[in-house]
Write a structure and sequence with these properties.
Helix content of chain B: over 70%
Distance between the termini of chain B: 40 Å
CATH class of the largest domain in chain A: Alpha Beta
Order of helices and strands of chain B: HEEHHHHHHHHHHHHH
Oligomer: heterodimer
Radius of gyration of chain A: 26 Å
Order of helices and strands of chain A: HEHEHEHHEHHEHHHHHEHEEHHEHEHHHH
CATH topology of the largest domain in chain B: MetI-like fold
Shape of chain B: globular
CATH class of the largest domain in chain B: Mainly Alpha
Strand order of the largest sheet of chain B: 1-2
CATH superfamily of the largest domain in chain B: MetI-like
Low-confidence stretches of chain B: none
Number of helices of chain B: 14
Low-confidence stretches of chain A: 17-38
Largest interface: A-B, 51 and 37 residues
CATH topology of the largest domain in chain A: D-Maltodextrin-Binding Protein, domain 2
CATH architecture of the largest domain in chain A: 3-Layer(aba) Sandwich
Number of domains of chain B: 2
Shape of chain A: globular
Radius of gyration of chain B: 24 Å
Number of strands of chain A: 10
Number of strands of chain B: 2
Largest sheet of chain A: 10 strands, mixed
Largest sheet of chain B: 2 strands, antiparallel
C-alpha cells in the first residue's frame, strides 16, 4: 500500500519535473530567439589558465564588448596544472574554445603541429611589430608560422629585501663575489640569506636561468649549443653549474625539503633576504604583503665591469581554434589582445611585462626596470632551446640539479646527464 | 517451458544491461582504446602510423624510457614489500589484539579505521605540511631533543619514498586490521577453548591455530596490497608531485604513466603512444596479479 503510494508520488514528481523543465526550455528558447532578433550576437569562448586573473580579463572583455557590440566573449579559467590536459581533450573532441591561452615553445609546438591552432600572420597584422624574441615563443620550429599573439615575457633575476639591505648597510652586488659577501653578511646577522630550496625541481631550473648565463657566456654559448658547435659538457657550462652549488650554505636548513610555496612565504614574510625567481612573482609578493619593500638585481657577473645577463622567455600566447565558427570575430578579439589597451592592462593590472610593443611603463617602475635589465638578455636555455622532445632539457636539468644540490652528483655528472639525454634525439649533437 | 526461459532471459538482460553498458563504456572501451593507441606512433596529439610493438620496445630498451620505467617499477616493488611487511603485520597485530576484547577495544577499532575514510588528497596535503623541514614532525623531534634526526622527509632521495609509504600505512592500516579482526572472530570458539584446555600459550595459539585459519584473509589482503602497490599514484602526486621529485626517487609507474601520457606543465610534453603503452603494462601487471590471486584463493578454499 505505502510502496504503491510512494511510487505514485514519485511518478507524479517526475512528470511534473519534466513538464516544468520543458516549459523552462521553451521560455529560454524564446528569449534567445528574441535577443538574436534584436541583434545578431556572436559568442566567442575564451579559455585561460589564470583563475586568479578572471577579474582583470573581465575588465578587458568589457572594454572590447563595448567597442564591438555584436560580439560576446565568454571567459572560462582552468587550473594551470590541468589546463593542457583539458584543452587537448576538448580540442581533439571538437568542443574546444574559439580562442585560448597557449603555452610558448615546445608547448605551442604540440598544439600547432596537431592542427589545433590557426596561423595568425594574416589575421593579426600587428604581429610583425612584436619583438623577434616574443615571436619566437609563438612560432612553430617546424614551419616557422606564428600561431599566437604573445602576451607577456618573463625575466629571471634576484629579488632582495630592501629594508634588510638598508639595515645591514649592504650595496646591490654587481659581481658574484659581492653577492656571496652580501649573503654572508646576512647569515652573520642571523638572517636567512636565501629563500630558495630544492623540493620542486623547476625552481632549481629557475635558479640556473638567473645565475648561470653570466658564467657560461650567455648568448655566445646559447647560439653555439643550439647549433651543436659546443655541448653541455663545455667547461664554461660545467663551471656555471658548479657556481650554483656555492649557494648551498645560504639556503634554508634542510633546503631539499623547501618547496616553492615555502620559498615564497619566507620572502613575503621577511624571513629571508633574497629570492631567486622570475618577474612573475612581483605581483603576488606585493599583493600578499603590501608593506614588503623589495627590489631586484640581475644575475651577478663573473667579473667586475662585465654586463649582467638575465634569462628571458615568452610566457604564452593567445591562439585561435581553426575550427571556430566565428573566425572573423575571434580575429577582432585577437587584434584587440595585440593592442595597447591589453598591453596597459597587463602592466597595471597583472604586473606582467606585456609583449605588446611600445607600451607605456611610466605607471609601473618595476616593469620599467625589468625592461631596463633586459638590455642584456639571453634565452632561458632549456625552455627556449630544448623543450621540444623527450627527455626535454628541463626534465633532465631539474632532476640532475636536485641530485647535485643534495650532494649526490657533481657538476660534471649533471652536465653529462643533460648532454646524454638531449643527444639521444637532438640532431646537431649526433653528428 | 521454453517461453518462461526466454522471459527469464529477457528479464535478466534487462537488469544486467545498464551495468554492462556502463562497464563497457567507461572501463572496457578506454582499455582497448589505450591498447589501440599504444600500437601507433604519435605526432604530438595526432595518431600517426601503425608501429606495432615499437612503443613497448622503447620502454624496455630505449633511452631514457627503460631507465625511468625500471626505476619506477623498483619503487612500486618497494611499496609492495614495505606495505606487506609493515602495514599488514601491524594489521594482523591490531586485528588479533582487538579480537582479544581488551579494555577500550571498541574505541581503538574506530580510531584505527577513521583515517581509512579520509580523502587521500587531504591526507597527502596535510602530511605534506607536517613533513616540511619546519613542519610538525621535525618540530616534535626537536621538542623531544631528537633534533639531530630532523630531516627533509620529502626532499631527500633516500627517505622520500619511505616517508610517503609511512603516511600511506598510517592512512590504510585500519583496513587490514578490520579484515583480520573479522577473520579472527570467525575462528570457531571450540577450537580455541580446546586449545586453552590443553594449556597452549598465546603465542602457540596464534601461530598454530588462529593463523592457519585466517589464511584466506591473508591472501585477500596480500592481493589487494599487490594491486594497490601497482596503482600508487595519488599519494605521490599530492606529496612530491608528478615528476617523482627529488631526482625521480619517488617516481612510480602511475606517475610515470601520467607524466608521459599527458605531459608535465613545468618540464615536458606529452607522448601519448608511450604513455598508452605504459598504461597497458600497468593493466597487464594488475590483471596477472588478480588472476594469480583468484586461482590461489580458490585452491585454498578447497583445502579448507
Amino acid at each position: 500500500m505505502s510502496i504503491k503510494k510512494i511510487l505514485l508520488i514519485g511518478i507524479g514528481l517526475l512528470v511534473a519535473a519534466t513538464v516544468f523543465a520543458a516549459g523552462g526550455k521553451d521560455q529560454s528558447g524564446a528569449s534567445t530567439a528574441e535577443t538574436s532578433a534584436q541583434m545578431k550576437q556572436a559568442v566567442v569562448n575564451f579559455w585561460t589558465w589564470r583563475p586568479e586573473d578572471v577579474e582583470g580579463y573581465d575588465k578587458l572583455i568589457a572594454i572590447f564588448e563595448s567597442q564591438n557590440p555584436g560580439i560576446k566573449i565568454v571567459q572560462t579559467a582552468h587550473k594551470n596544472t590541468e589546463y593542457n590536459t583539458i584543452l587537448s581533450a576538448a580540442l581533439s573532441g571538437g568542443s574546444g574554445p574559439d580562442v585560448f591561452q597557449s603555452r610558448a615553445y615546445g608547448g605551442l609546438e604540440t598544439f600547432a603541429q596537431s592542427g589545433y591552432m590557426e596561423p595568425l600572420e594574416t589575421w593579426v597584422p600587428e604581429l610583425k611589430d612584436f619583438s623577434p624574441a616574443s615571436r619566437r615563443g609563438a612560432s612553430s620550429i617546424k614551419d616557422g608560422k606564428i600561431y599566437g599573439v604573445p602576451f607577456a615575457s618573463q625575466t629571471l633575476f634576484v629579488y632582495f629585501n630592501q629594508a634588510m639591505y638598508t639595515k645591514l648597510g649592504l650595496k646591490v652586488p654587481q659581481t658574484w663575489d659581492q653577492f656571496l659577501a652580501n649573503l654572508q653578511a646576512m647569515k652573520a646577522a642571523g638572517i636567512q640569506p636565501l629563500a630558495n630550496g630544492g623540493k620542486d625541481g623547476w625552481t632549481l631550473e629557475v635558479l640556473l636561468g638567473a645565475i648561470a648565463p653570466n658564467f657560461y657566456g650567455a648568448n655566445d654559448f646559447f647560439d653555439a649549443v643550439v647549433k651543436g658547435q659546443t655541448n653541455f659538457k663545455d667547461p664554461r657550462f660545467v663551471e656555471s653549474i658548479r657556481k650554483l652549488g656555492e649557494l648551498k650554505p645560504f639556503m634554508p636548513d634542510l633546503f631539499m625539503g623547501t618547496s616553492y610555496t615555502d620559498m615564497q612565504s619566507s620572502f613575503i614574510n621577511e624571513q629571508a633576504g633574497h629570492f631567486i625567481g622570475g618577474s612573475f612573482e612581483a605581483g603576488y609578493f606585493s599583493k600578499q604583503n603590501p608593506d614588503l619593500k623589495f627590489d631586484f638585481f640581475p644575475g651577478p657577473a663573473a667579473k667586475a665591469g662585465a654586463p649582467n645577463y638575465v634569462s628571458t622567455y615568452a610566457d604564452g600566447n593567445f591562439s585561435m581554434n581553426p575550427t571556430s565558427a566565428n573566425k572573423e570575430e575571434v580575429a577582432k578579439f585577437l587584434r584587440f589582445l595585440a593592442g595597447k589597451t591589453t598591453g596597459d592592462l597587463f602592466i597595471n593590472e597583472f604586473k606582467q611585462v606585456s609583449s605588446v610593443p611600445g607600451v607605456d611603463t611610466s605607471r609601473s617602475p618595476f616593469i620599467a626596470k625589468v625592461l631596463q635589465v633586459q638590455q642584456y638578455n639571453t634565452p632561458y636555455v632549456f625552455l627556449v632551446g630544448f623543450r621540444y622532445q623527450q627527455p626535454t632539457g628541463s626534465v633532465l636539468a631539474q632532476a640532475a640539479l636536485q641530485g647535485m644540490m643534495a650532494g649526490k652528483l657533481s657538476a660534471e655528472e649533471v652536465c653529462q646527464q643533460i648532454q646524454e639525454g638531449i643527444a639521444s634525439y637532438y640532431e646537431p649533437f649526433r653528428k | 517451458m521454453m517461453k518462461t526461459d526466454v522471459r527469464k532471459g529477457l528479464w535478466i538482460s534487462f537488469f544486467v544491461l545498464p551495468g554492462l553498458l556502463v562497464v563497457t563504456l567507461f572501463i572496457l572501451l578506454p582499455l582497448f582504446m589505450s591498447l589501440f593507441n599504444s600500437l601507433f606512433s604519435w605526432n604530438q596529439l595526432l595518431r600517426g602510423a601503425f608501429v606495432g610493438l615499437e612503443n613497448f620496445r622503447k620502454i624496455f630498451s630505449g633511452y631514457p624510457y627503460r631507465e625511468r620505467f625500471l626505476n619506477a617499477l623498483g619503487n612500486n616493488a618497494k611499496w609492495f614489500l614495505l606495505t606487506m611487511l609493515i602495514q599488514n603485520t601491524i594489521g594482523i597485530l591490531f586485528g588479533y589484539l582487538l579480537s582479544r576484547r581488551l579494555p577500550g577495544h571498541g574505541f581503538f577499532k574506530r580510531i584505527f579505521f577513521i583515517p581509512v575514510l579520509f580523502s587521500i588528497v587531504a591526507v597527502g596535503f596535510l602530511w605534506g605540511l607536517y613533513l616540511k623541514p619546519t613542519g610538525l614532525v621535525n618540530a616534535a623531534l626537536r621538542l623531544m631533543g631528537l633534533g639531530a634526526y630532523a630531516r627533509a622527509w620529502l626532499g631527500q632521495e633516500e627517505i622520500a619514498t619511505l616517508s610517503i609509504i609511512a603516511v600511506n600505512i598510517w592512512r590504510w592500516v585500519g583496513f587490514p586490521s578490520l579484515v583480520f579482526l573479522a577473520a579472527v572472530d570467525a575462528v570457531p570458539a571450540d577450537c580455541l577453548e580446546a586449545a586453552y584446555l590443553d594449556g597452549v600459550g598465546e603465542w602457540t595459539l596464534f601461530w598454530r591455530i588462529v593463523f592457519p585459519l585466517i589464511i584466506p584473509s591473508v591472501t585477500v589482503i596480500s592481493v589487494l596490497t599487490i594491486i594497490g602497490s601497482l596503482n600508487v599514484f595519488e599519494q605521490v602526486y599530492t606529496m612530491t608531485g608528478l615528476d617523482g621529485s627529488p631526482n625521480f626517487s619517488t617516481d612510480t609507474i602511475g606517475t610515470l604513466f601520467y607524466r608521459t601520457a599527458f605531459g608535465s606543465v613545468d618540464s615536458g610534453n606529452p607522448e601519448i603512444g608511450i604513455g598508452s603503452a605504459i598504461g597497458v603494462i600497468i593493466y597487464s601487471l594488475t590483471f596477472i596479479a588478480s588472476i594469480v590471486s583468484i586461482i590461489s584463493t580458490r585452491s585454498r578454499e578447497v583445502e579448507l
